[in-house]
Every structure is written in structure tokens, then in C-alpha cells.
Please model this.
Amino acid sequence: MNARPLAHPGPRCTLRDCARRSARPGGCTLNADGTAVKRSIGRQTRCNDRKLGKGPTATCDLTTPPGCAGTLVTDGVALAYGPNNPAGTAVDAHAVKAQLACQRRIGRGVSGYVGTKLRGLIRGKDPATLETKARRRFDQVPDRYFRPDAV
Model:
């Protein structure tokens, strides 16, 4: 296997905008819908991580998001993985170990953000408080992986 860089193009939407779109009237309004979205995006991000390591033939147990979510799951995962959504080929896991760990953390951060923010909005919680809570895991990515001594 040849090592290839992991790249990210510009997003189609920001995380905040993606989560807000689904929370508008007519969007997901039930706790079960929020749980289903969180499960769906979590499984999709884990699947993308698996495909980065094992190639596009890796099998995954995916969950279809509820219809009320629209493109929230697709857009969130695309934002996290860019052109590696899904991976076209496997990468050399030893050569890009740090990048894979960072990508996995970004995927988990996006998944956590969408799930926490959407479920909080469904439950009627304060959006400003939710923003802080939802960003917690995602905000750890730069601290861990974008330091000069991180690689």
C-alpha cells in the first residue's frame, strides 16, 4: 500500500448550520429522532474510519437516518472526511498513524457535535449552552493534533 495524504476541501455547511437545518420546524422533533440521527452519524463515521484503514471493501453496519434529518448526516460526515468520504483506497496505517488518529478524532467530534446539539435542541435547551457542550470534544482536536510536537 502507498501512503496518501488525507485532504479536506471546503465544507458545504458549517456544523452549526447543519445542526440548525434539522432543528427547524418540520425537522426532527422527537427524542427518538435525535437518537437515530446520533446513531446514524456515529456509525457512518466509524465506517469511514474503517474504510480508510481497510479500503472501500470493508463492511459496515450502517443505520439509515430518519427522514426528518434531511442531509444532516451526509453533510456532517462529508464535512469531517472531505474527499475521503468514503475512502477510495486504503492508506498505509503505519505511515500515517498520526493522521488517522486525528481523522478519527475529527469524525468523533463531528458525530458528538451533531448528536449533542440536535438532541438538546429537540429537548428545548438553550442554544448557547448547547453550543459550548456540543463543541467540547471537537475543540480538543487542535490541542492534540495541531501542535508542532504532535507529529
Summary: The CA atoms of residues 6 and 144 lie 17 Å apart. Helices lie at 15-23, 31-54, 72-81, 97-122, 127-145. The chain has one domain: 15-145. DSSP finds five helices and no strands in the chain.
